[in-house]
Amino acid sequence: MRTKWLALxxxxxxxxxxxxCGAGKKDNGSSSAPNGGGTAVTSGGSTSGGxxxxxxxxxxxxxxxxxAYDFGSSFFINNLYQFLMNVPAGQKTPQPDAAxxxxxxxxxxxxxxxxxxxxxxxxxxxxxxxxxxxxxxxVKIADPNGPSSLLANMKSVSAPSDSKVVFTLKNANDQTWxxxxxxxxxxxxxxxxxxxxxxxxxxxxxxxxPYKLVSFDKNQQASLTANTxxxxxxxxxxxxxxxxxxxxxxxxxxxIQSGDIDIAYRTLTPSDIxxxxxxxxxxxxxxxxxxxxxxxxxxxxxxxxNDQQKEAIRKAMAYSVDRNALANDVYxxxxxxxxxxxxxxxxxxxxxxxxxxxxxxxxxxxxxLLQQAGVKTPVSLNIEYTTDHYGPTSPQEYGAxxxxxxxxxxxxxxxxxxxxxxxxxxxxxxxxxxxxxxxFPDYVNADDYLSPFLVPDNFxxxxxxxxxxxxxxxxxxxxxxxxxxxxxxxxxxxxxxxxLAKIQNILATGQMPYLPLLSxxxxxxTRTNISGVQETxxxxxxxxxxxxxxx
Length: 551
Prior knowledge:
The chain is α+β, with helices and mostly antiparallel strands.
């Protein structure tokens, strides 16, 4: 990911909306107590028995929210923890979850009132003090693989009572803050169980979500069961969930075909998906996407004798890639070209990389850029990718990118690869000069594809946005970008759209730290007796276990 951040600390706007998405709304029927059978019951229905087994190739980094900002971890975290606000399936705006209501009470003050009677799965009461503890803890630990960057606009958080939590924000009228409460930075943890200054081992985590953890063999198999202390709106339809992690997508395919698992979700190869579409024993389900695949340039270690040469190399690569070939030949139409860091289909998306660099390779313009900067060719490029985290087709994708770049005669590419559990810590230690990343949105808004990449010292670790950048560079094209971020985050309508378009253009025409490539759809394969998957495949990328059922 999952992962991300919000507004830069710039001048506060005087105008403020005194309400936000979800303000004053209540969860209907969410206060029911567990029934005599030990299963939580709400007006939304009751938990039935049975077990559903899900197969995935996604790896987990951590189940403690302070150290998790990736899709594999969020896959579990979204089902094990509650959030103050969250986006229901099929919707785009956050609604109260553990909160009874949330709203702006001052221009820089956002207040949430808690629902009464909340409990963690171990029986401990969940109060506003646990909420304040959870947010403070993430900022204090500040794990490089964690979501602390999402809270850049949070000045402080307090719990004046057990039922009220107050966020003091650096920027007024932050229209994205309600969304942040439902992101990777928002899971509520038990202050009696989780240490304030370090992360908790995966097997010891405690949440208050629809499910609780029974057993966890990391990146092998996990077992979850319906949380009898849960009284929220998302009552599980199935009692038990088992998640099996596969190292090879070929085995994932075989097991969904044989019925050894009920659902295969992330990630099958495009060829496997085509093959399974003709199998009458399974259903291939395609859902809305928004996943972004892109290349990152480490400003400190990428090739080039100076900033000018490094920028020329980055932009020459932009002139040399063929996104249509990647989408059609490698991914068989399960991805589409993305000509911006905001992918197509997201409100506010533009196409600056198409406008500037075109849709097909242009070796002549790439060569002219390199010559003007005094770069000798062919340029040696070391490009790294992860073999598992973004699906089993990454080797083919980066093999195609290597061929495209070398076809210009301007580059000599050496590819490197690693499992994500090795890849993730290595890239934040400047091990990789040019490398693959993907982005799964925290919330359905163009800001979520921009702000996380533009905050100083962000999760990407490319040194484009360092607070203390190398001499001669302009971190984040800061003078241009910072006021535009504030403008789009504190306004709506045309004013926000204009700022978003300008930011996207700067990312393509300025220092160009990232090279967007593709945007993907979501695909899951299920046995024919499984329901609920189609409904949860929405642009939030929350795979909601509680919606799944088996007939």
